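4.2 Preliminary Data

To establish feasibility before requesting continued support, the project team ran the inverse folding procedure on a target of 151 residues. The structure was first converted into the token representation described in Section 3, and no sequence information of any kind was made available to the design step. The complete token record follows.
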């Protein structure tokens, strides 16, 4: 199955900086992918894990601070990272430049509606507590991390 998403056809969630590219229904369950733009100092995601999905990060521009397990690393333009299932991770822009990242989740559940919920949180239309009720639906399980808290 070939999937082509033209830039002009991709759904852009402006408040959260997410561009939706391809979700699992379009890829016959193989993957879901989006691009995120992070302003300097903007947290991308608090500590969480995916029980079923691996998450791939490819930094298009800028620098991204990433928690993976108990380690903090900084990814730079052109760096690629794969976080396996059941590994706590979090991320945010690092430095004083805009950071763009391509994300791909494999063996993932459909996630576009999760990003649309996040968009509502960013706009102030959705209570952030709603996200916690969707953990199993989107395989996005929030966790505590003293490493991330102490960064």
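Position-by-position output of the design step:
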């Amino acid at each position: 199955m070939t999937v082509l998403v033209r830039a002009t056809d991709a759904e852009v969630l402006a408040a959260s900086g997410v561009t939706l590219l391809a979700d699992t229904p379009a890829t016959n369950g193989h993957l879901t992918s989006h691009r995120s733009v992070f302003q300097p100092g903007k947290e991308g995601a608090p500590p969480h894990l995916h029980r079923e999905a691996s998450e791939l990060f490819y930094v298009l521009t800028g620098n991204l601070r990433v928690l993976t397990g108990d380690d903090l690393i900084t990814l730079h333009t052109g760096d690629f990272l794969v976080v396996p299932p059941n590994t706590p991770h979090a991320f945010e822009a690092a430095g004083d430049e805009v950071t763009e990242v391509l994300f791909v989740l494999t063996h993932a559940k459909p996630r576009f509606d999760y990003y649309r919920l996040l968009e509502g949180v960013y706009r102030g239309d959705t209570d952030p507590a709603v996200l916690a009720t969707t953990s199993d639906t989107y395989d996005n399980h929030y966790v505590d991390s003293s490493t991330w808290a102490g960064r």
